[in-house]
Amino acid sequence: MGLLGLVLRGAGLVLAVLVAVGLAARHLTPVPNLVVVLVVAWALWRGPVAGAVAGLVGGWVLDLVPPGAEVLGVHALVYAAAGMLAGRLRVTGPVAAPRVAAVTLLASVVVEGVDVVRALAVQAPVGLADVAVRCLLTATLGALVVPVVVRAERAAVRRRFG
Hints:
Blueprint: H1 3-25, H2 34-46, H3 48-64, H4 74-88, H5 97-121, H6 128-161
């Protein structure tokens, strides 16, 4: 993987975070988790280590971009775990949209579940309907976007080694 590929992946994660923060600032909720979608895409393409690294980077960006996290590093660890889990569910060859949606849903449930537990621990209100809708929207977006990202990754590899 070249330096340009790493920069593009990082830029994609930063853009996903900025879009998510911008939509949340406009109180457009629930919105799909774009970072989870990208983390799942890279995890299904490269495996659990790449998924964990992508999740770690995406989580760090979420931790640092305002409003950020109360406890620095929480998002990084949660997204890394979700990326590693998604990567463990990787199969060789083309992956059908229902499987991508299921893996994305699972990763989204991991991320959202930790946020729900954190909120409940401090007795903050939790809108479980919003959480469920956000998970389903994320899974749907994943089924649409992940195959496109994986195809782009494969095309880049073919051009580079091809």
